[in-house]
Design brief:
Elements (H helix, E strand, L loop, with lengths): L18 E3 L2 E2 L2 E2 L3 E3 L24 E4 L5 E4 L1 H14 L7 H14 L6
Antiparallel strand pairs: 1-4, 2-3, 5-6
Length: 114
Amino acid sequence: MAELDWSNLAFQARKTNVVVVSTYKEGKWSEPVTTSEFNLNLSTFAGVFHYANACFEGAKAFMGVDGKVRLFRVDENAKRLKASAEKLCLTPLPEDMFINAVIECVKRNIGFVP
């Protein structure tokens, strides 16, 4: 990974080292896995192409002056994601699974934490 010029970043999508993925199939969420594969393979019948409901919760991580990473209220992000899923009649991701996935994602992408 190239060094990031933190004082001169543009607002844009930036590929990181990995993403954390969990899929919902046959009534349950799979164990999260990390992958460096960023492409999705979606069926043309996937609901996202047909006015589907979806929810997203973006957790934030920051590097402290002491060199330690701080997650900003990740527990509240997990609660909001669960509430959003329930309102949309989607099966919510368990809060602890979300938090652990965020922690793993941050660890594996530490060079991208401001």
